[in-house]
Amino acid sequence: MLAPALHNDSQRPQPDSLWRAMAARVAQRQPPVSTGAPLARDLAVDVAVIGAGYSGLSAAYALQKRGVDCAVFDANPVGWGASGRNGGVVSSKFRLSFPQIDKLHGLDAAKRMHRLAHDGVRVVESFIDEFKLERAHFEHTGSLRCAHTERAFAAICAEADWVRTQLGDTSMTVQPREEVRRETGSSEFVGGVLSADAGTILPLEYVYGLARGLTERGVPIYEATPVVEMTRSQGGPAGVVLRTPGGTVRARQVIVATNAYSDLTSATAAYQRELVPFRSAMIATERLPAELDDRLMTQRRSYTETRRMMKWFRKVDGRMLFGGRDAFGKEGQATGFDALQRAMVALFPDLADLRIEYQWSGYVGMTFNALPHAGRSDDATTFCLGYNGAGVAMASLLGQHAAALALGETPELALLGQQGLRPVPFHSLRAPGVRVVAAWYQFLDAVGA
Ligand SMILES: Cc1cc2nc3c(=O)[nH]c(=O)nc-3n(C[C@H](O)[C@H](O)[C@H](O)COP(=O)(O)OP(=O)(O)OC[C@H]3O[C@@H](n4cnc5c(N)ncnc54)[C@H](O)[C@@H]3O)c2cc1C
């Protein structure tokens, strides 16, 4: 038996998040999700999927629907990675705006990317319907981007106008200062732009629901099963041999869906070099007093702000949930949470005396060109990764496209398609590089530039 060469993070349980507490409450009323025990024998499948987050589970579903024999393997429990920790903002955009995509790649590319972005939300909706995921509480309530300066407001208004005139998309509407103040309960914003094709979800329930649906459809999910070695099979047709502590898996194709946790073992570490992992942190307050609950975030949307070191927030379980990127801390460290609380109170002074009851973090996978990537790294291996912090909808979509790629199809990927691996240049300098950029962004945000 091989000794699993695991990165320290995977020894840790999933953080004690609000999502876990809410899932535990549901589990008291309904039976918990029961997926897989670890792999304890040798196995042969057509397609092996590594990673049981949105990407991997969505890929497995696309394979199962086509009648392809597949199995999912994860070093940890289902949803242990970003899929069980995120803010649950379901969005129809990329980190690069559509006008920026037009400038860099032309209008046709912007149109194709715009379709993909909205396809992501459609995939989430289809999972909710097909798998009957009521527990995930998907609400198509829209997302409001709140401007922190007049200059930022002008920029997001211009973007909404461009999307309407050039792409014919009328789902983005401008909201003046007073309306944003009334809806959010914060006086700190000068206006906002509402994207109607967006919403909120309970992220851990969503990934549990996907796993439950797959298990019911006969797709095995092996938890606590790290892939510790991945080699090409010798002789015969193209294929891969995956070694896990409990058994060997032979597959014709493998889909690597390990995103910002790819360095858990050396077998998948090459995919980590496609990314700059960035820590993202979240806090949740105690339940809001009734008066605040009635006044804050009355439309139950998700909210983001325009600062470069962006913060986002929503109300869930009667609490304020507040998140932001924290380039300076490491996962599991207590740093960064105080800064988040200060940022929250600056926007919502009424929350100053509320206790923070949950705090947790995880890694998002940023890419060099700020776009997700899906492609083949060789003739037996497909990957999808790099959602740049907006992966609930996009990983649900790209997982399906990765399945299609593994079967030799050519799904529409616009700018997201990538042939072979293209490691981030100077990858070993990524951690100090991220800190320098983040410090610069914080400075620009502070001076209102
Ligand atoms: C704090 C936080 C907040 C976020 N907020 C939002 C948000 O509000 N909206 C949004 O759209 N996106 C958000 N994101 C991003 C989003 O969560 C991710 O883009 C998405 O979950 C990626 O899913 P995934 O399946 O690709 O990866 P993950 O969910 O990270 O899954 C990867 C899995 O691979 C497994 N693995 C890794 N290596 C191996 C190996 N060698 N063998 C076996 N298994 C392995 C890991 O155990 C892990 O379970 C957030 C992310 C974080 C961390």
Automatic annotation (TrEMBL):
SUPFAM superfamilies (UniProt xref): FAD/NAD(P)-binding domain
Q: Where is the FAD dependent oxidoreductase domain?
A: 46-405
- Keywords for this protein: Oxidoreductase
InterPro entries per the UniProt record, alphabetical: FAD-dep_OxRdtase (IPR006076), FAD/NAD-bd_sf (IPR036188)
Q: How is this protein named in the record?
A: FAD-binding oxidoreductase
